Amino acid sequence: MLSQPDLLLCAQLCDDVADALVNQGYFCQDHALPQTLTAALLNNLQQLEEEEALQPAGIGRQQQHQLNRRIRRDKIHWLSTDDPVQATYLAWMQALQQGLNQRLFMGLFDYESHFAHYPPGAFYARHLDAFQGRSNRVLTSVYYLNQDWQEADGGELLLYTEEQSTALAEIRPEAGRLLIFLSDRFPHEVRPTQRDRYSIAGWFRINNSLNGQIDPPS
Ligand SMILES: O=C(O)CCC(=O)C(=O)O
Ligand SMILES: [Fe+2]
């Protein structure tokens, strides 16, 4: 049985994420969630893959599954509270959402996330997850599930500041590492991976319909 988010650990995580967001706009930490949960998530994702329940990722919510193999080649599966393992991860992210709203008044309204599998050779070209003022994606999260990732395995996430061509941070997709960043501030890319690469990408959103705009369905 997986336990629900531990209140103390959660409060510490919320403090650390809030501080990092204020100071540098992004947060990256190892062993962010319990190791048993990380292992269960990897298991869950690999099981889904065996059941052929992963789909090629599309680009943009609007252009419904407009596939573009030149831009990204991962396969995804959206998380749901119907599955107990996925529900536990979502409970952590919900606690983080509440914690950040309390600390930073961010008005985060909901969270959507998907498992991602990058098979050898897969990548995701440089992109922004949100455009200023045009998206309700405010914060991006990436949680990595891969044990013992080596430099030769490739598949690093490179994080850039707006106009920069050299990366601000180079992040290996090591199990237990949690990355959170402001979605409209940091272009990023996933370098081609040499090994199966497993992760959960997610987005905390504000409710645009509160600003007099119609919130598009996800
Ligand atoms: O897996 C990663 O490191 C980042 C994935 C990503 O950028 C995305 O799904 O938008
Ligand atoms: Fe992204």
TrEMBL record:
PROSITE patterns: FE2OG_OXY (PS51471)
Keywords, sorted A to Z: Dioxygenase, Iron, Metal-binding, Oxidoreductase, Vitamin C
TM spans (from-to): none
Alphabetized SMART domains for the sequence: P4Hc
Domain Fe2OG dioxygenase: from-to ranges: 104-206
GO biological process terms on file: cellular response to hypoxia
UniProt superkingdom: Bacteria
GO molecular function, one term: ferrous iron binding
InterPro entries linked: HIF_prolyl_hydroxylases (IPR051559), Oxoglu/Fe-dep_dioxygenase_dom (IPR005123), Pro_4_hyd_alph (IPR006620), Pro_4_hyd_alph_FE2OG_OXY (IPR044862)
Keyword set includes Disulfide bond: no
Cofactor(s) of this protein: L-ascorbate
Protein name: 2OG-Fe(II) oxygenase
Naturally occurring in which organism (per UniProt): Nitrincola tapanii
Lineage: Bacteria, Pseudomonadati, Pseudomonadota, Gammaproteobacteria, Oceanospirillales
